[in-house]
Amino acid sequence: MKRSPADTEASARKITRRGLLLGGLQVSFAAMLVGRMRYMQVEQADEYRDLAEENRVKFSLIPPARGLIHDRNGVLIAGNEQNYRIVMVREDAGDPEAVLTRLRKIVWIDDADVRRALDEMRRRSPFVPVTVADRIAWEDVAEVAVNAPALPGVTAEVGLSRLYPRANDFAHVIGYVGPVSDYDLSKLVDPDPLLQIPRFQIGKSGVEAKMELDLRGSAGTREVEVNAVGREMRELGREEGRAGDNIQLTVDADLQAYVQARLAGESAAAVVMDTVTGDVLAIGSAPTFDPNKFVRGISSKDYNTLINDIYRPLAAKPAQGTYPPGSTFKMVTALAALEDGVIDLNETIRCNGHVEVHSRRFHCWKRAGHGPVDLAKSLRESCDIYYYEIAQRVGIEKISAMARKLGLGERHDLPLSAVAQGLIPTKAWKREARGADWVVGDSLNAGIGQGFVLASPLQLTVMTARLATGQAIHPRLVRSVNGVETPVRNDGPLDISTSHLEAIRQGMYEVVNARRGTAGRSKIVGDDMRMAGKTGTSQVRNITTAERARGVFRNEDLPWERRDHALFVGYAPHDNPRYAVTVVVEHGGGGSKAAAPIARDVMLQAAYQGQPPLEAYPSNQRGTIRSRQRDIEEMLEMPHAEREKAAEGRA
Amino acid sequence: MSYLEYNVKYVPSGLRKVLYLNWSLVLLLTAVASVGFLMLFSVAGGKMDPWAMAQMKRFALGMFLMFVIAMVPIWFWRNMAGLGYLISLVLLVLVEVIGSVGMGAQRWIDLGFMRLQPSELMKITLVMMLAAYYDWLDVKKVSRPLWVLLPVILIMLPTFLVLRQPDLGTSILLVTGGGVIMFLAGVSLWYFAAVIASGVGLVTSVFMSRGTDWQLLKDYQFRRIDTFLDPSSDPLGAGYHITQSKIALGSGGWTGRGFMQGTQSRLNFLPEKHTDFIFTTLAEEFGFLGGVSLLTLYVLILAFCAISAFQNKDRFSSLLILGVAVTFFLFFAVNMSMVMGLAPVVGVPLPMVSYGGSAMLVLLVGFGLVQSAHVHRARQK
Questions:
Q1: Counting CB atoms within 10 angstroms of each CB, which of A268, A419, A448, B138 has the fewest?
Q2: Are A425 and A563 members of one domain?
Q3: Considering only CA atoms, which of A83, A99, A89 is closest in space to residue A138?
Q4: Which regions span the lipid bilayer (chain A) (predicted)?
């Protein structure tokens, strides 16, 4: 085709014109790209750099090893156990369900765990290891290793978990650990990032909970470079954490074991304290439970059994439980009256078995009456009329003040769950709490440790130690933290006249060692280890006039929960006190029969740091004692789970 | 113009043609490709495999093709334009029938030794076809409706087939590239106004089709548009590409983190780091200066093409040169807008830099035609 040169020229000019226009557009577009690049790379560079760092580096926490807990002699009470778990990586497994089916032929895994694991694998990135089975036996781990070719993506890992070698013995002292709950997190203002680690365990009760911050330690960090999908490419840095502090308790694990065994079968509490240092040597609560079950995740069946038991195994009775102290409170009333001068050391008061106050009749436990009673006799035979009289004379305020001086009504600072304050009533307290005025009858009841008065076995032990030494000693449960000794706390001599204290001690000595003492059957033979003490039998119900008319029920005839609490407080040796003991047997009946024998056994066990010789017991009791010693020896050789059953069987 | 007309002036022949090649363009293309090798070496973690070496081989093949094509007289290529277009169209239909399914979209025909992507081929053959059409058409008829309709059909036919694959990026390139050639050929501006208006209409109907049976775009393409409009809405899902790409790019700063020091691209934060998103690696490692340098190289290539086109009095040649240049421009303009978060992720490679055979070969074939036009232009003796 022919075309005129003019046409060609014109068309070329047009192309050039439009081409230049287009070129201009292109260059402006390029300039716009440069502008955008400048904006992103120069003006916003810092912002994007931060985002890039965030993209690149991931911090992960290394959980620290939890602090260990030892007894006063270095026996391990709470430790960490290596446990094996089986983890599975989805992308390596290929078909996780098929691999799991094969795995289940080797290791027992229940359906719920399989479902949970499969679900977790689906939700998370394919390279994240998911725990399939926890706490696997070493044999199973070996089996898995042998079958590795058939189990792609399955590996065994080692982790640490809490173990309580002394199981049931320390359930109420140490408590237990468990996984962090939402409730735990809600209580914390600034939660430790460690708590976010899945399966991280924290103290839930007892020392484990109260000393959580010491025991926990601090997390290490691992800085890893990750790619877009979160896969770890390499470790950039690692900072090891600090393991938790080790704690040494003042408790003697063997004595504790003995106490638990001795209390087995009862609903009871016992506390043994060093009267000089305040060290709590044993703090038993029966029945007990295995804290290891809680660490591993207790079954609802086991949990319901614990919850529904009328003996309340989960309650930490020595510090948490409060009881009317009954006659064990009489030393307080007596000291208050003596110090106030309303009664003289040798003054006698006549006991007719009852006394009439404002036309209301108050009875002595001995219906026939004690006749003329002085201070020593009032303690020895636990006459109630004597205390009704002096309580009226001295008044509740002075009794309360004395009680507080001796450590009652005070929340002792021990790292235990729910340390009870008890109740030492005053007139002001009654007006505020009950909206009623204090009446003389209240003073009478308080004078014999009934009515409003409530005290925990721990408080009674402190009281006993203070009576025995005359020193304002405070209890101590933690001997040292990470090797740093916790100071002994002694506020010095109590502001009580020595002669008055001596008179009380003499009375307490006679309770156990005099012919007519209420705890005469529980005396310790031998000059170097004589025990002094006081029995108590506290009512948990009012005895009505009608009941009295028919004759007071014998405890054995009542249903268990309406029987009296049996109490005993004591110390030994009487002339150089070293150990203070309290035993409370809930609904155990009389203190002299149910509590005092236990207290004597425990006292001797503490003093001899092991089984005492039979010579420490009165000769006529040695046969029974020997058989009981054998029973307990036998029991201590059994696994913890069977001890209480064995005790019940015997009862 | 005919062969005789060319003969009136001086046209080099034989091996002398090599001297008349546009060597600046060859140099610029090699420079851009080298940037590509460097980046592929970097994203592979300092290794020639798996990308850099393969890319170099393909570049060598492409350069060889470019030289061969450059040696063949431009009028031969003009005569081949219709056939080339027809073959491309048939191949596009073929991928519909026998094409293997890759990435959820049918895009290539497996020839055994290489995978042929007809849509890539079409980018060049369409340019050739349109240039030849306007070379043949009487200049006076250019704006007559019938003669405007014909090239529109020529453009829409392959575009429709490509869109069905579905390959949004290539469709945009074909329509825009074709439209620009019509614009250069002198089609009345009123038509463009009308086309833009109907384009708006098309976009509207595409969005209207969403969720109906006759949906014109795949769901993933709709989602890409959604996340383009608001990438932060789904930072780990569909908006992930754009967000990560912007982070990598932005964290480069003035001079970048240094060669092989880019963290984002190397650590797999970037999807398709060696293909469509390779610019982010460059921008992260060499910063603003690196990015601007590459852009400068691209603009220089465009400038040399434009100069060559303006010097050329042959209608087919100048339209072809400008058409190839525009296609090249569209490649990098769309790709860079995409990685900078200015355009949706449509899957257009960075020309001569992104890893990938078809695109590079087709571009070098295109530049072969540019060289042929340059060599065989009529010169004053």
A1: B138
A2: yes
A3: A83
A4: 20-39
**Per the CB < 8 Å rule, is B264 touching A233?**
no
Q: Which of A205, A267, A285, A327 is catalytic?
A: A327
CATH number at residue A642: 3.40.710.10
User: Where do the H-state alpha helices sit in A418-571?
Assistant: 427-434, 440-447, 457-469, 498-513, 545-550
- A327 has catalytic annotation: yes
What count of other Cβ atoms lies within 10 Å of the Cβ of residue B14? 7
Spatial contact of A486 and A478, defined as CB atoms under 8 Å apart? yes
Residues A337 and A209 in one domain: no
- Residue in chain A closest to B298 (alpha carbons) equals A30
Q: Which chain B residues are closer than 8 Å to A26 by Cβ? A: 299, 302, 326, 329, 333
φ, ψ for residue A271 (rounded to 5)? Answer: -130, 135
Report the distance separating Cα A614 and Cα A233, nearest Å: 71
Displacement of CA A318 from its chain's centroid (Å) = 10
Of the pLDDT bands very low, low, confident and very high (cuts 50, 70, 90), residue B103 is very low
Those of residues 224-253 in A touching chain B at CB distance below 8 A are 225-229, 231, 233
Which residues in chain A land under pLDDT 70? 1-7, 53-60, 124-128, 189-191, 193, 196-199, 226-233, 541-556, 649-651
What tokens does B306 get? 């434009």
Closest of A13, A8, A2 to residue B3, by C-alpha:
A2
CA neighbor of A400 nearest in space, from A429, A376, A434: A429
Query: How far does the CA of residue A129 sit from the closest CA of chain B (Å)?
Result: 21
Whether residue A237 sits in one domain with residue A99: yes
Identity of the residue numbered A215 = L
Contacts with B, A 23-82, CB within 8 Å: 23, 26-27, 29-30, 33-34, 36-38, 40-42, 44-45, 47-49, 51-52, 55-56
Per-residue DSSP letters for A338-399?
HHHTSS-TT--EEE-SEEEETTEEEE-SSTT--EEE-HHHHHHTT-HHHHHHHHHHH-HHHH
Q: Kindly state whether residue A308 falls inside one of the protein's structural domains.
A: yes
Closest CB to A42: pick one of B254, B302, B310.
Answer: B254
Maximum C-alpha span of chain A: 154
Taking phi over 0 as left and psi of -120 to 50 as alpha, with beta for the rest, A167 belongs to left
Domain boundary at A217, A249, A281, which? Answer: A249
Q: Do A283 and A242 sit in the same domain of this protein?
A: no
**Domain boundary residue, one of A249, A283, A302:** A249
ipTM score of complex: 0.88
pLDDT tens across A173-215, in order?
A: 999 998 777 777 777 766 676 776 666 788 999 999 999 989 9
CB pairs under 8 A between A and B: 144
Residue A561 placed within a domain: yes
**Is A40 within 8 Å of B246 when comparing Cβ atoms?**
yes
For residue A619, the 8-state DSSP code is G
Place of tokens 């789904």: B234
Structural domain boundaries in chain B: 3-375
Residue B355, helix vs strand vs coil: coil
Contact of B307 with chain A, judged by CB distance below 8 Å, is answered with no
Residues A244 and A277 in one domain: no
Written as one letter, the residue type at A516 is R
- Quote the number of domains for chain A: 2
Please state whether the predicted TM-score (pTM) of the whole model is above 0.90: no
Partner-chain residue, chosen from B184, B247, B313, that has the shortest CB–CB distance to A18: B184
Domain membership flag for residue A37: no
* Residue A40 in domain: no
Residue A442 in contact with residue A451, Cβ under 8 Å?
A: yes
- Centre a 10 Å sphere on the Cβ of residue A133 and count the other Cβ atoms it contains: 24
Statement to judge: residues A151 and A188 lie in one domain = yes
Gap from B91 CA to chain A (nearest CA, Å): 31
Are residue A80 and residue A125 in the same domain, yes or no?
Answer: yes
User: Which residue carries 């304050």 as its tokens?
Assistant: A421
Domain that holds residue A118: 60-249
pLDDT for B236 equals: 46
CATH number assigned to the domain comprising residue A72: 3.90.1310.10
